[in-house]
Design brief:
Layout: E1 11-14, H1 20-31, E2 35-40, H2 43-54, E3 61-64, H3 70-84, E4 89-92, H4 107-135, E5 138-143, H5 156-176, E6 181-188, H6 194-201, H7 207-217, H8 227-238, E7 249-252
Parallel strand pairs: 1-2, 1-4, 2-3, 4-5, 5-6, 6-7
């Protein structure tokens, strides 16, 4: 096995990769020889990401789409199948949240979270699986969340949709193992993603920002994770290094899921 080019020639669909963890996965996978098919809903971010990735993997392509819109996803999948003949690896990275108690959540918000966090992953998988089945190999990787197993107040729908994705992926692993298709899930904990960095910047420099950062640091035994920590985990699952692993959940959470009580010096409400 060539550990320098683990994904040579692989066609990889990353459903949301204009920013954040998805973009970092795209960069890493491209450096490992993959052709990247990158989804995103912000045209500016997407164009910048695709330009960067094409410097490494020239035949990669971007797709502007809205994961809450079934027709938008359908168009993307049809183009990928027509142009590239399908995908070898699907990495589903989508996730949105609105933190509030369930009774305050509008019906439209409930439906959007269900569409983006859960149904979109099933739809992408459903479109890419027939080709994988025909070729007798394939790999599905779903990015869920620590909230699928342990959560905090105000996350009813987020935790529910992320938990649903974990369960669905486990069932898919059983359905498609005989076709040589592996299905696994990564559950990140606190990651210093673009979204979290934006949230930090919302606090004015000084004591409030320092307090917030201290809370972030106290939420798990290890320091907050970097986006590359999740990308490396995804690379392991996407490559032949994990050829005997399917139906599993990797908790890439800095040890947070092993903690029974708040860490020393932390804030119980953090």
């Amino acid at each position: 096995m060539d550990y320098n080019k683990l994904l040579t020639g692989k066609r990889v669909l990353i459903t949301t990769g204009a920013r954040g963890i998805g973009r970092d996965i795209a960069r890493l996978f491209a450096s490992q020889g993959a052709v990247i098919l990158l989804g995103g809903r912000n045209q500016g971010y997407l164009e910048h990401a695709v330009k960067e990735i094409r410097e490494i993997s020239p035949t990669s392509k971007g797709y502007l789409m809205d994961l809450s819109d079934e027709d938008s996803m359908e168009k993307c999948c049809c183009d990928i199948i027509d142009t590239f003949g399908g995908t070898d690896i699907l990495v589903h990275t989508a996730g949105i949240n609105q933190r509030m108690p369930l009774h305050e959540c509008a019906e439209a918000d409930l439906k959007k979270m269900m569409e983006v966090n859960y149904f979109s992953g099933l739809r992408f998988a459903g479109k890419m699986l027939p080709g994988m089945m025909e070729r007798k190999e394939g790999n599905l990787i779903f990015i869920s969340s620590i909230h699928a197993f342990m959560t905090m107040p105000g996350n009813t729908m987020y935790a529910g949709t992320k938990g649903a994705m974990v369960s669905a992926a486990r069932a898919m692993a059983l359905d498609y193992a005989s076709y040589g298709i592996r299905v696994n899930t990564i559950c990140p904990g606190l990651i210093l993603s673009d979204v979290v960095k934006d949230e930090i910047k919302e606090y004015p420099e000084g004591d409030k920002r320092k307090t917030f950062i201290k809370q972030l640091n106290s939420m798990q035994p290890l320091p907050p994770g970097k986006m590359r920590d999740i990308s490396n985990t995804a690379l392991f699952l996407a490559s032949e290094m994990s050829s005997y692993i399917t139906g599993q959940v990797i908790m890439a959470d800095g040890g947070a899921s092993a903690v029974a009580h708040p860490m020393k010096g932390g804030d119980a409400d953090a």
